[in-house]
Structures are given as structure tokens and as C-alpha cells.
Amino acid sequence: MPLRNRGGKWHYRFEFGGKAYGQTTGLNATERNRTKAQAIEMEHWQALREGRMPQRKIVVRQFNEAAEIFWEWAQVEHREHPNSARRLSVSFSSAREFFGAQPVSTIDEGRVEAYKQYRISEHQVRDVTLRHDLHALSKFFGYAIKQHWAMRNPLDNVEIPSDSEAVRIHVLSPAEEKQYFGRAMQYADLYDLGRLILNQGMRPDEATNLRKTDVNLGRGQLFIQKGKSAAARRTLDLTTESRIILGRRMAGDSPWIFPSRRNPGRNISRLNSAHDRILRQAQEDGIVFNFVLYDLRHTFATRLAQAGIDLATLAAILGHNSIRIVQRYVHPTAEHKKAAMLRYDATMIEAE
Question: How far is 102 from 144, CA to CA, in rounded Å?
């Protein structure tokens, strides 16, 4: 019954009664731990021989230490989608602060409910942020169970805000657009990024990760090379304004449309900071903006839907596999709905 080193942990596998059994010991794959790992394997075999299931032994890990190991795993797991890993890191900053040195195995539903209250009362987070935080914590406990740090996932019995409660979408009005971009002109990168999102419907990280080789001005197209699904990897036809912006940004030696001293993906935090400064400056002048950069994509989707673009085409442009997902982005205005009813009423009159 040889031990195997998998992912830096001792695993074992054996046959008993014609069936294969195996799992991780949770121990680091070092010579020092080999004897302990073999003992765990033998316990499993002996339990089966006696007609019972082996008792899993919990490996005590403080939350902060476990969170660090989980983060290292998440970076590898989401290596093709680094933004997913970064979102986990953002959600875990508050979880580390709250749970600290508490052993993972002692965190139950009550502690998670206390964490929810902490996020709402101390940080005034919205349902959409709370939803992200709790899903990140649930993913962590799924990993913790495999590592024998916990017996179960306490999030299974905790209420998480639903999609309908968590969705926070703002569609810019023409007046808001004019006011915002008038102020954004002081930040050239932010201005160009915002206009590209509003013109093409790209996700912010898709825009900041554009290479010059992804743009074909002759054909009037750009190519999204990476994404969470096949639908996200797509070709977009450029608007007139997008051609002008991209043509201007093609100059220079950098291979990136939005160059950065580190890498283009990190531009998002820098540009979000510039966006937040504009919102604060506007508030000081008595103008309240309440939207994020991603809302420019929502605004694009809503405007295309109002222009009569069918949802299947809109889904393809946005890079979604499902029309159902697109429906969350589309928010007809009262004027648009009124115009639709007037057109319908006209058809009813004509039918008479």
C-alpha cells in the first residue's frame, strides 16, 4: 500500500473486498510525516476490516493560516482567470480580519451569521458584496473539507442573498454620461477605457487586457482572446469612436492598449481609484453619481436592447452563453416601455 505525493500531500490508495479506497492524509509529503501517513492508511484499512467507516481526524488550522494556503491554491486553480482569484482575495480580506486565529473546524453557522452582521454593520456592504463574500467563504470550506481542516461546510445552513436581492445595476442617463465623461477627461486612460466599454460592451478587465495585436483597425474589429467560456472569446466590430480611440492608443512601443508598469490586469485597480476620485469630486460639487465602471457595460446592453437588438445577438456581443443571463443587464426606461405600448396600441387600432 504505497503512499503517493499529490500536490505536496501524502495520499494513499488500496483495494479491499474488490473495491478501491483512497484519500489524502492531509499531511505534507515529507519523510518526517511518512510514518504518520502510513498509520492513517492502516486505520482506514482496519476500520473496513471491522465493518465500520474510519473516523476522520481533523487537522487543526487557524483560519488565517488556512486562508493563505487556500489563496495559493486559488491562484493555481484560476490561473487562466486571474480576476477570479483576485475577487477571492478581496472577499477574504474581511474574513481574515474577522476570524483571525480561530481554528477552521470550530467555525459554525453562528459564527458565519456573526460575520454577516459584521460586514453589514461595520462596513455597510450591499447585498451584492455580501453574496460574493459568502460564496468565497463557501468555496474555502469546500477546500477545507478536502484538507481535513473541517468536517462540513457551515455555509450550507446560512442564508445567502439571492441573485435578485444582490443585483446592483445602474444604467446611466444621457445627462449622467455627459457629466461623468466631462470630468473623466482629466484622466486619459480612464476616459478612453470608459468610452470603449460604453461603445463595445466589454468587461473592464477585457479592455485593460487588450494587446495591440488584438486590434485590426483595417477591418474595424477587436478580438477578445480570453474568457470564462467559449462565448466570452469573441470578435467585436468597432464603432467610429472606438476606432479613433484605439487608433490613438496604437502608438508607442508597449504591446498593450493600456500599458502598465506591472501588467495590464492591474490597471483595473488604478482606474477604479481614478473613477472613485471623480465620484467624490462630483459629490463635493453637489452632483451624486452612484455607479461602478461595470455599469457602463450594463448601459451599453440596455441601449442596444432599446434600439431593437434581439437578445440572442446581444448575448453574443456581450460574450454570454445564455439569453437568461443577458436579461439581468437590460433595464428598459419608463419612456421606452411607454413607447412600446404606444406602438402596440397603434397595431390594435389598425387591426380594427
Answer: 14
CB 105 within 8 A of CB 56: no
Partners of 6 in the β-ladder: 9
Kindly give, in sequence order, each residue whose CB lies less than 8 Å from that of residue 266, ignoring residues fewer than 6 positions away.
260
Q: Which residues pair with 22 in a beta bridge?
A: 13
Counting beta carbons within 10 angstroms of the beta carbon of residue 72, is it exposed (0 to 12), middle (13 to 18) or buried (19 or more)? exposed
Query: In terms of pTM, does the model score above 0.85?
Result: no
Show Cβ contacts of residue 74 under 8 Å, excluding neighbours closer than 6 positions: 84, 85, 88, 89
Close Cβ partners of 48 (under 8 Å, ≥ 6 residues apart): 16, 17, 21, 54
User: What does the block give as the cell for 65?
Assistant: 493560516
309-337 residue pLDDT tens: 888 899 999 998 888 777 766 666 677 67
- Cα–Cα distance measured from residue 99 to residue 95, given in angstroms and rounded to the nearest whole number: 6
